[in-house]
Amino acid sequence: MLLKVLGTAAGGGVPQWNCACPGCSGARARPDRRRRHASLAVRADDDHWYLVNATPDLADQIESTPALHPGPAARRTPVAGVVLTDAELDHTLGIARLREADRIEILATGPVRAALRDRAHLDDVLTPYAELTWRELGPRPVPLREGSAVEISAVPVSGKRPRYAAAGPDASAGPA
Length: 176
Prior knowledge:
By secondary structure, the protein is α/β, with parallel strands linked by helices. The chain has helices at residues 22-29, 58-63, 89-92, 110-119, 122-126, and strands at residues 2-7, 39-45, 48-52, 79-83, 103-108, 131-136, 142-143, 151-152.
């Protein structure tokens, strides 16, 4: 298994657009101190990578990582899908950037999918552009991709829901 760190900053990255704290001001003055949103790329096999979360700066993360660049065919990409750790906007807004693909595979728990489908209406917004293929993650390990030696499972860590999904009919669905 090979992991590539795509970003290490909390929501908003560094600098945040609306912040003048010393860290953000320093990153504006010294671009080498800038940091992208927290994300990883995981290689499932020789030709397929999965992004752990789809951050708003996903395109920059892909461009700065040669292993994720498209080719050799014009529309061939090694990015096979996205693994979502939760339904927070900082971890999901980048999915919209993947809409140019024919198909987007998304691995997530049931509550994460429910929040994105029912509260953020992600399926309604993106299916006119690309086919969304969802795979539900649970406690039992499953291959990241069919035939891959890399396995993945969900581990519950919090019941905190994103603000947009905090109230409403699915609020009791469990952790998102």
